[in-house]
Design brief:
Elements lengths: L10 H5 L3 H40 L2 E7 L8 H11 L8 H5 L8 E8 L2 E9 L3 H11 L4 E5 L15 E10 L27 H8 L5 E11 L3 H14 L10 H21 L22 H14 L3 E13 L5 H13 L9 E3 L14 H18 L9 E4 H7 L31
Antiparallel strand pairs: 1-3, 1-4, 2-3, 2-6, 5-7, 5-8, 6-7, 7-9
Helix pairs in contact: 3-5, 3-12, 6-10, 7-9
């Protein structure tokens, strides 16, 4: 009855199993469009990579060492304000900016390092954002001292094995499927009655201060400012899913490409066979949200996600590198304490971070070519750290300003007593207003 819907498959017999004839048939019958699209996509990617490489080569970076005030009573909340201010580094780009000038989003790297037991806070950024970074710090810590220094990471070997130095390094990645769930943040570490803050980073500072001659530990968070709209929409969709609300999936180009011929065929079929009578419209069922049946723990998770997406967020990369001379290197002295410090922010029902050891970090479970493969990983992690790369290694993920301030903040000097943390020697003050000039 519907002969026009039948497809003539007789051409298959003429191919005779010859792949070249099959390829020619495919190209002659519209396959060239697919092939052309793939070629154009590949050319565009090569072009974009070339332009972005040129743009990256023009960037000038500065490494800033921050000495905190000796008697600072500021907590992570002040640093959270800093991170919110630094989100001003995000900038939109036009079509020409991206495809002709190769413009990419500049990053900001916040670091805590120990050089033979001396702890220093570091921020590495492009020179054009130096004023932004300094304004963010001085707005919360007016008595801090900021100085441009040489990049410490460039003073150790970048290739391994090395005759003098050895390295252990990794990236901290989410252990959960979605990064929209939050970490445990600094308000959790505040006593509800006395409001006393127990600094979760004090353990990290203590282990960093124990390093000796020939040892260095580097902790890095690379921040990539983002547009907030997609991040917020994804968070709201997750909340709807957790509370049993209907989530409308947004169709992409591929979905529309598949739907179009199906809808067209349906329209032709309806025109030939006649459209059936429309079914009676069912009464809309009353919405029964799952929110009414959530457990107290599930309600806490929903509230935590709402709190996270209400704050500004970045795409981030967390790296840790321990480099030391071979005769003094001792992984248990610093690696395990560092991982334990990060695990303080983990929860079993929300976001958790773990060291990536399958592809990036040094692993003792490698069976074949263990030494050479681990040496390759050492080289890659050190180079990625030195470049403050937001692409090399595992995928980046979202952390909000509250989470970042929990993981990286200046210590409350009344809570953290480590004398190895670099502090300002004297308080800065304004000159007297009655000083004569001229």
């Amino acid at each position: 009855m519907f002969d026009f819907l039948n497809i003539d498959w007789s051409f298959v017999d003429s191919i005779g199993g010859n792949p070249f004839i099959a390829m020619g048939f495919f190209l002659a019958n519209g396959g060239w469009i697919v092939l052309l699209a793939v070629i154009l996509w590949g050319i565009s990617e090569l072009w974009l990579d070339w332009r972005q490489t040129i743009y990256a080569g023009k960037r000038v970076f500065v490494v800033l060492a921050i000495d905190i005030p000796r008697t600072s009573e500021q907590g992570p909340r002040a640093v959270e304000n800093m991170f919110a201010y630094l989100a001003g580094a995000h900038g939109g780009m036009s079509f020409l900016d991206k495809w002709w000038d190769g413009v990419t989003q500049d990053t900001i790297s916040c670091e805590i390092i120990s050089m033979e037991g001396q702890i220093q806070f570091i921020i590495r950024t492009t020179r054009k954002f130096r004023d932004l970074v300094e304004a963010a710090i001085y707005s919360q810590y007016p008595d801090a001292q900021i100085a441009e220094v040489e990049d410490y990471a460039s003073k150790v070997p970048a290739n391994y094995p090395d005759e003098e130095y050895d390295v252990w390094g990794t990236e901290m990645i989410p252990a959960t499927k979605t990064d929209l769930l939050p970490l445990k943040t600094y308000p959790y570490f505040e006593d509800k009655v006395s409001m006393e803050f127990k600094d979760p980073l004090s353990a990290m500072f203590e282990s960093f201060a124990r390093l000796g001659l020939g040892e260095q530990a580097w902790f890095q968070i690379v921040l990539t400012p983002i547009a907030q709209s997609d991040y917020t929409k994804a968070g709201l969709a997750l909340i709807k899913k957790m509370t049993g609300q209907k989530v409308e999936a947004k169709k992409n180009i591929l979905d529309h490409a598949v739907d179009f011929p199906l809808k067209a065929a349906g329209a032709v079929f309806d025109a030939v066979a006649g459209s059936p009578a429309a079914p009676a419209k069912k009464p809309e069922a009353k919405l029964d949200f799952k929110i009414m049946n959530l457990t107290p723990g599930e309600r806490d998770v929903v509230a935590a996600v709402e709190n996270k997406i209400s704050k500004l967020a970045y795409k981030v990369k967390l790296r840790f590198v321990y480099v030391a001379k071979k005769e003094v290197k001792s992984n248990p002295r610093i690696v395990n304490p560092f991982i334990g410090s990060i695990k303080q922010f983990n929860t079993n029902n929300m976001l958790s971070l773990k060291p990536e050891l399958k592809r990036i970090g040094m692993s003792s479970s490698i069976i074949f070519f263990k030494t050479s493969r681990n040496n390759g990983r050492k080289t890659r992690i050190v180079r990625a750290y030195r470049n403050r790369s937001n692409h090399t290694g595992a995928s980046s993920y979202h952390l909000c300003t509250e989470e970042l301030a929990s993981l990286w903040h200046f210590p409350h000097t009344l809570q953290v007593k480590s004398p190895q943390i670099k502090k300002t020697e004297a308080k800065r003050s304004e000159p007297p207003s009655n000083i004569p000039f001229g």
